[in-house]
Amino acid sequence: MINKKVKALYFSATDTTKKVVTKITEIINENINNKMTIENINFTFPQVRNNEISFGEDDVVIVGVPVYAGRIPNVLLKFLNSIRGNGAIAIAVVVYGNRNYDDTLIELKDILESRDFKVIAGGAFIGEHSFSKTLAKNRPDEKDMEIIKGFADKIYLKLSKEKNYDDVVVKGNKPYRPYYKPINKYGVQVDIRKVAPKTNSNCNVCKLCVDVCPMGSITNEDVSLLRGICIKCGACIKKCPNNAKYYDDHNYLYHKVELEEQFAYRREPEIFI
To answer: pLDDT band at residue 2, thresholds of 50, 70 and 90?
Structure first.
């Protein structure tokens, strides 16, 4: 009998990482036949990232982050490096928009191990790209969810059969590659970090964008203004009921189309256990 509490810990601005992580968590919990309510810690929003988070040896924590430019979003590193594992088991999960997850999974595994987690499995899954409504559209889809279920079942078997877990080996480079940088139509690298969304006349000031911005950057007084950084997560654009948010930066739009054209083929999840 496995006497473990299964928990989910994730950042998910457009809910794709949440969908993957919560599915893994639910299936493992069902396999354990655990009647306890699953604890979901959604650190998408600043107020949660200001909290001290710790776990213990009785916990199995599924940790999920999105891939930004081939790495963990740098705005999450301070929070992730503050978590205390205290001997908890962890499953490292990354979700990317069909281009590549590069060194994100190995980076997440390393951080978790440095925080006293025992990482016994890892997975890289595909979700609709944050820049696009067509690239990896509606993923994770039904086929992905079947793979996710199989991954969770394998984790359960590992939990039930082993006491001293071997280190899981995942793909990635050390040292990690630099953050991926887009290029413009002339083949010159461009920096789109300061690009911010605009607001059009469709806006009815419902202020949903204020609520969904993971950086807390959209001002409540004027939703067309930003008081902080934009990480291009896509939340304000994809969740706006009136299509009132958009980007008009030429380099950003060129890169978006480039991604949609070059990576239109279907990539499949990769699991390591």
So the answer is: confident
